[in-house]
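Name: Aconitate hydratase
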Amino acid sequence: MPSLDSFKARRTLDVDGKSYTYYSLKAAAENGLGDVSRLPASLKVLLENMLRNEDGKTVTKADIVAFKEWLDNKGSAQHEIAYRPARVLMQDFTGVPAVVDLAAMRDAAEKLGADAEAINPLVPVDLVIDHSVMVDFFANEDSFEKNVEIEYERNGERYEFLRWGSKAFRNFRVVPPGTGICHQVNLEYLGQTVWTREEDGETIAYFDTCVGTDSHTTMINGLSVLGWGVGGIEAEAAMLGQPVSMLIPEVVGFKLTGKLAEGATATDLVLTVTQMLRKHGVVGKFVEFFGPGLANLTLEDEATISNMAPEYGATCGFFPVDEETLSYLSDTGRDPERVKLVEAYAKAQGYWRPEMPDPVYTSTLELDLGSVVPSLAGPKRPQDRVLLSEADTAFRDALNEIRGGSKDPNTTPGSRGEARFVDEGATSVYTHPESYGVSMHSVEGTDYHIHDGSVVIAAITSCTNTSNPSVMLAAGLLARNALEKGLARKPWVKTSLAPGSKVVTDYLARAGLQDDLDALGFNLVGYGCTTCIGNSGPLPPAVSKAISENDLVAASVLSGNRNFEGRISQDIRANYLASPPLVVAYAIAGSLHVNLTTDPLGKDKDGNDVYLKDIWPTSHEIAEVMRKSVTPEMFTERYGDVFKGDEHWQNISVTGSKTYSWPAGSTYVQNPPYFEGMSVELDKAEDVKDARILGLFADSITTDHISPAGAIKASSPAGRYLQEHQVSPVDFNSYGSRRGNHQVMMRGTFANIRIKNQMVPGVEGGVTVHQPSGEQMAIYDAAMKYKDEGVPLVVFAGKEYGTGSSRDWAAKGTILLGVKAVVAESFERIHRSNLIGMGVLPLQFKDGQSWHSLGLDGSEQVSISGIDSISPRQDLDVIIKKKDGSTVTAKTLVRIDTENELDYFRNGGILHYVLRNLAREAAA
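Structure predicted for Aconitate hydratase:
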């Protein structure tokens, strides 16, 4: 769509003999906009987007002027904009349901009289299959091959569907399994920093931007590509030409000074940054990094920080272009012509960091990199940083809390629950177990024992750290040094190595370090997210049995970004994030009771104590190995034919039909019911009358709690459904792999084993009380009973409802269960948007109210009037009738923030909105 170009910003940029058309921020400033040179770099990206897409309707002159007003008011001016990202990134867990929805929309389009092929991505879409491989086999040289074989057996129906999609849809590419993690592939290959497209004989250059169906899409901000996670629903709309509706955000500046001290890693840095930003409060805001300390970080370090933006709560964590950006693009085999364009374009746009004046920020923080020390985060949240030197005592406190006791050491022993913790003076649980007071429990068929705090999973995994050669090579060097000292991993630790790309395998092999990692049990298990998303696979049966029978609080240590309760493994209740070398160290230690800074890890061949400091590689060693082992040729070779796939992928044969032939018996892919009975004309939004409460939830209910994830229990509603369809429990696979089947997913909504519905105090899992019968049952079963009775439903919650990964099924499952509204004290950004995108009304308590303060217990009936006439961010009363006939009023704020969101909600969801528009165009 041509720009109206109110500020005469359209210009030509000549780079090495080639001409590019672009929209110049400097020209706009000179032609009436005013000086915007001190605008944060991330907002300069959005401003260029407005200049290029100005059409007088979705983007107006006022939207452009709003950026100057933002600058003049230091971020306090709120203004809605319609932002169009250059491209969309998907992974297969969230991507499959998105492609299912597109296929369903093609069917619905035909029924409404529109052309099915009009349902087609209008911007480039890349889907990387990285969420399906599980760690079934480990610590063997053939683990990778065996895991891949099982992956294809489990996911054949899904992969066949995705191959169909790659042929049926234009602008849609699929990176096959076994290639890498989507964010690392994005960083190493897909991201370009400056994007180009051919239009009317011209080459248009503009900032590379993207949205992704995974919250860690933010990793690409390290490459100066503005990107963040959106719900699958929002991503589908972006693919179909709908802008992302958003308010110009506040931007928090994070100043970095100094240099990392010897022994501190990028992981330690990001855990420190995460804790600081969580404390500062950055939910819904951009974070932008600046200051002299950036000169002492590699781009991979910056990408590690950007990756964790969802953990510190920000929309993104952004770094502008500098020499390091150019070096990384060159070192990863990008086209030299593109690298020259990036430099020229950044300088032309006033976006080149060394030449930028310090931007104006809404607020700022500062960190001296030299103050960063080795750390972990856990046992349940990424922002709960623990110093490595205090990790053992911190675990003891956490253990007391997990077991229900107080973490106050001054309380009497009898009030500390039944925690079995270690005496302060002990030095090693393996040298002097009797000095600990730890209950040791034998593992059947072995000669070893485990206890509260035993590390039973040590996983080098996740895009966060496997994209960074410095920490991956540090892990390999630490393994080599440990072996030379005669150390080994403890036999109860399940070890795994799941790199984010094949390039990691190449440089570890070239450095000779893969052999050392193999010798400690860190054999390659697959290229994917694995343990970080709950695909850790089963523990050895004897270890699992010992944990279960003795009610042990076992632990995992992983180099990931998420450690929420119930996420990593159903056997494990304490999960810690750590750098790859610390993962290796804990595999050797085998216990969180070992203080890695003061206790020996074991003894060398001569019987001398070996400490972590004895085997920790120096920064000089790491840099030297990295210089010799990581080459641009590795990237060009690995990504030269990235969409081809292995023989498994190539052997999947599909047709190129425009609509999908839904297999009737599939338990993986089903045509969803969203568009049943839909008409072209818009129906009036119905009020909620005498709804029942499906759940009362406390603070920090994550999308992991709401959305189906992890293993499927045979006794659960989803497990019963699969067995009714002749699927045996051994073939259940995970919820994530079945996200294309709404029948499975709606049964798993609110079914997390750790979710606590306060309507049934003291009970964990997806249980509620049906009213007025008072019968306790599974949430799904109650929802279906209410549906049969014609009773609508609502959910009440506390603060930060929907925090965590951008799981679209947390919203899809909610609407399919019959929930019309969610009333919470606050919402996570993506989940709030997703609820609207599925036609669920998000309401936020006002005036300090909560369901606690209103005295709710779940027996009440709820009514909400005036829904058809609501406007963005208006006040709305929720009338609650109690069991005794009395009523209370909840004062709420409608968390539909923009007019675009209101359009989506009134249509019953964003997909319905797009479909109706297409049908109207076809009828015109």
